[in-house]
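Q: I'm building a small set of examples for a reading group on sequence design. Run inverse folding on the following structure and report the sequence directly after it, with nothing in between.
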C-alpha cells in the first residue's frame, strides 16, 4: 500500500437519471429474461433463448438486434486473466483532475478498467499484472508523476462476488515499441510494449515461457 497525505478532490455532480428513462422501455419481462440468460451463459444460442422466453427464434433475434442497437447490451469477448496467471489489483487515487489520470489509464495496456466517482478517492483504476511486485513500479514511476495526484492507495484483489473477476478486454498481441504506450518513461519492466519485456504472457512465440 502506498499512501500520502491527501486532500478532498473536486467533485463532479452525478448524471441526472432522466437521461436513462428512454432505455427503461426495453426492459419488459421477455427482455429481462433474455439479458439474464446472456449474462449467465454468454454463448447461449437464439434457439435456446427462445425456449426459455417462450417466443419464436425470429422474435428473439429481433429483440437482440434492438437491444444491441440501443447500446444496452454489448457483444464482446472477455479474457479470463486468471487462467494466464495474471493478478488483479485496484488503485484508488485522489486527483484534482480526473481526466488527466483517465487519459493515462486508457493508454496503459495493463489497466483494464477504471471508474470515477465523488469523494476523497475519486478514481479507481483496475490493473492486471504478472507479478504484484510490478504494481509499485507503476505507482511510483507513473501515477505519482501525473499532475494533480494527491493520494494513492493500492489493494490486490483476491476474490469477486460473481466469481468472474474483472470483465474487460485484454490486448494479447505482441508488438514492441521504443515509446511507452502511456507516454511516460521509464518503461515498466513487464509492460507488453517494452522492447526488454521481462514477463511471460506477452512473450513472442513462447519466448521466456516455462517448458
Amino acid at each position: 500500500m502506498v499512501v500520502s497525505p491527501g486532500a478532498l478532490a473536486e467533485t463532479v455532480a452525478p448524471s441526472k437519471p432522466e437521461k436513462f428513462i428512454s432505455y427503461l422501455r426495453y426492459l419488459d419481462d421477455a427482455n429481462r429474461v433474455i439479458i439474464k440468460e446472456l449474462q449467465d451463459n454468454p454463448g447461449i444460442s437464439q434457439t435456446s433463448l427462445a425456449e426459455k422466453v417462450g417466443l419464436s427464434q425470429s422474435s428473439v433475434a429481433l429483440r437482440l438486434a434492438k437491444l444491441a442497437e440501443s447500446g444496452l447490451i454489448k457483444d464482446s469477448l472477455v479474457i479470463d486473466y486468471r487462467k494466464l496467471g495474471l493478478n488483479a489489483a485496484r488503485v484508488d487515487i485522489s486527483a484534482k483532475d480526473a481526466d488527466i489520470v483517465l487519459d493515462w489509464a486508457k493508454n496503459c495496456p495493463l489497466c483494464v478498467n477504471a471508474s470515477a466517482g465523488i469523494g476523497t478517492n475519486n478514481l479507481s483504476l483496475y490493473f492486471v499484472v504478472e507479478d504484484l511486485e510490478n504494481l509499485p513500479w507503476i505507482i511510483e514511476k507513473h501515477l505519482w508523476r501525473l499532475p494533480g495526484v494527491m493520494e494513492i492507495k493500492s489493494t490486490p484483489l483476491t476474490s469477486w462476488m460473481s466469481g468472474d473477476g474483472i470483465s474487460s478486454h485484454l490486448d494479447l498481441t505482441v508488438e514492441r515499441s521504443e515509446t511507452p504506450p502511456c507516454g511516460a518513461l521509464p518503461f515498466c519492466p513487464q509492460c507488453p510494449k517494452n522492447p526488454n519485456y521481462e514477463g511471460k504472457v506477452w512473450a513472442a512465440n513462447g519466448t521466456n515461457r516455462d517448458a
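The helical segments are 21-24, 29-40, 46-53, 57-70, 98-107, 134-141.
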